[in-house]
């Protein structure tokens, strides 16, 4: 239950960029990087930095809690460990904004995204092959596919000349990642509840 709560917090906090729709910062939402929201000269930049820090700490907490119950199978173990790496890299990413230490920020951002991809892939594989987190076979896999499509769009936009709405692609990517963390939270809660449910003893005739 605690792990599910931590994952839910991570998913909500990782979507702190939505605050830009409430109090506009003037950034072009179709073309700017989300990391630009954390620059010191951006109004309310602390909201985005603290959002990432909370998301990262919650993800690390969820990883430790899940690892403590000994996840069944290599896929599940990989997903849980990678979740912890994602959380750690996300905190480091927030502490090294794009405008302050660009090289470190680029590295931590890449590690965070890659490790969350590993988490999503391993959790999906585990759902199919190790019978963990059944919801990850359907809603989880669908959300993962959306993340993959948005990531491909974003990488292409960053490398091709022209206006390919890179910012929109990244917002869809990160938004889908947040949704995936929430789905994983539901899957974890459901699996924990099912595991605690007492088994029925067949009646003797």
UniProtKB/TrEMBL annotation:
Pfam families in the record: DUF998
Alphabetic keyword roster: Membrane, Transmembrane, Transmembrane helix
Domain of life: Bacteria
Keyword Membrane listed: yes
Keyword flag Transmembrane: yes
TM regions (residue ranges): 47-69, 76-96, 102-123, 135-156, 168-190
Name of the featured protein: DUF998 domain-containing protein
Organism: Gordonia malaquae NBRC 108250
Classification lineage: Bacteria, Bacillati, Actinomycetota, Actinomycetes, Mycobacteriales
């Amino acid at each position: 239950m605690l792990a599910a709560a931590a994952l839910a917090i991570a998913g909500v906090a990782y979507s702190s960029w939505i605050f830009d729709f409430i109090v506009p910062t003037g950034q072009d939402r179709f073309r700017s990087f989300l990391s630009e929201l954390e620059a010191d000269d951006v109004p309310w930049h602390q909201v985005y930095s603290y959002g990432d820090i909370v998301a990262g700490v919650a993800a690390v907490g969820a990883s430790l809690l899940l690892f403590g119950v000994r996840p069944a199978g290599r896929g599940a173990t990989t997903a849980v460990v990678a979740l912890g790496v994602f959380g750690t890299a996300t905190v480091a990413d927030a502490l090294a904004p794009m405008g302050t230490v660009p090289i470190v920020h680029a590295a931590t951002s890449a590690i965070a995204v890659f490790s969350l991809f590993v988490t999503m892939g391993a959790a999906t594989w585990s759902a199919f092959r190790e019978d963990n987190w059944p919801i990850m076979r359907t809603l989880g896999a669908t959300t993962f596919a959306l993340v993959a499509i948005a990531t491909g769009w974003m990488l292409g936009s960053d490398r091709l000349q022209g206006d390919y709405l890179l910012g929109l692609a990244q917002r869809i990517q990160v938004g889908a990642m947040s949704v995936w963390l929430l789905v994983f939270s539901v899957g974890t809660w459901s699996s924990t509840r099912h595991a605690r449910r007492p088994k029925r003893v067949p009646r003797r005739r």
